[in-house]
Amino acid sequence: MARIPSSLVAATGLIGGFGVARATKKRELGGVALVAAGAVAATQWKRAAGPATAAALTGLYVAAFAGSHPLAKKLGAWPSVLTVAGGMAVASWAAADRRG
C-alpha cells in the first residue's frame, strides 16, 4: 500500500477537522478528526525526520489550528483554514516528506 505523504495528512487534518465541525455542528467531532490526523502525521514526521523535527512540526500544526481563528476574522472561515493548511503542507513537505 502506498504511503500518504505527511504533508497531505496534516493539511487534510486541518481542513477535515474544520469541515467535520462545521457539517455536524459539533466542535468535538472536528477536534477528533484534527487530533487523529495530527497523530498520524506526527508519527510520520518522527520516522522521516526524527523526534525534534516531529515536535517542531506538531507545534506548528497546533499553531496553525489556533492561528486560523483570528485569521478567519480577516479572510473568512474557509479561506483561513485553506491558508493555514497550505502553509502546514509546505512546512511538512520541506521538513519531512522531501527526505523520503
Question: Helices, strands, pairings?
Answer:
Layout: H1 6-24, H2 27-49, H3 51-75, H4 77-95
Structure, explained:
The chain is an all-alpha fold. It has one domain (7-99). 86% of the residues lie in helices and 0% in strands. It is built from 4 helices and no strands. It has helices at residues 6-24, 27-49, 51-75, 77-95. The longest helix is centred in the middle third of the chain and has 25 residues, at 51-75.
> What share of residues are in beta strands?
under 5%
Q: How many strand segments?
A: 0
Name the helix and strand elements from N-terminus to C-terminus, one letter apiece. HHHH
The chain-level structural class is mainly alpha
- List unreliable stretches of 5+ residues: none
State the distance separating the first and last CA atoms: 16 Å
Key words describing this protein structure:
globular; 100 residues; mainly alpha; 4 helices; single chain
Short précis:
The chain is an all-alpha fold and about 100 residues long. The chain contains four helices and no strands. It is globular and about 35 Å long.
